[in-house]
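PROTEIN DESIGN WORKSHEET
SECTION A - STRUCTURE
LENGTH: 165
TOKENS:
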């Protein structure tokens, strides 16, 4: 009988040693990395949400957007002096001039010239020049909630403004 007692004690010791090794191995293992948070998905183009956002923007193109329309390339360039120079009165006596216009840019990046508005100008030639050039320019559309929407684009220029001292 003494033999069975030794075997039982030895088996118990082996099990305890194995349990300790498993516990130590678990402590030595590197921690499980936390999952990386993924950004909220943007809705696919013209999803139901985009239809709703686009409808809201169509009613009020001046609404706040995440990204306003931008010109991809000014070609041809605005407010360039024509042959023979600017018309009389475009540049005021103090050397300044100013023009500010707005237009709605649609979701394809084209200016909707029916919305063209002159906000301020010191000479009609300035606004007329822009009205003839803006339809030739390509824009990036406005973006709201990940959706391309029609948005208001405003152009302001003060060529020839005097230098402040």
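SECTION B - SEQUENCE
RESIDUE ASSIGNMENT:
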């Amino acid at each position: 009988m003494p033999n069975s007692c030794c075997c039982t004690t030895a088996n118990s010791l082996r099990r305890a040693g194995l349990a300790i090794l498993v516990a130590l191995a678990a402590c030595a293992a590197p921690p499980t990395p936390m999952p990386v948070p993924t950004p909220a998905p943007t809705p696919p183009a013209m999803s139901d949400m985009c239809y709703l956002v686009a409808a809201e923007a169509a009613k009020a193109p001046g609404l706040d957007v995440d990204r306003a329309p931008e010109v991809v390339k000014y070609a041809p360039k605005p407010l360039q002096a024509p042959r023979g120079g600017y018309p009389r009165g475009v540049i005021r006596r103090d050397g300044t001039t100013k023009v500010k216009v707005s237009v709605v840019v649609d979701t394809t990046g084209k200016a909707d010239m029916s919305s063209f508005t002159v906000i301020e100008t010191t000479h009609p030639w300035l606004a007329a020049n822009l009205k003839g050039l803006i339809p030739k320019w390509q824009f990036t559309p406005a973006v709201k909630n990940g959706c391309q929407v029609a948005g208001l684009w405003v152009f302001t220029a003060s060529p020839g403004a005097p230098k402040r001292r």
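SECTION C - NOTES
The domain at 48-157 is CATH 3.30.2420 (TolA/TonB C-terminal domain).
DSSP finds three helices and seven strands in the chain.
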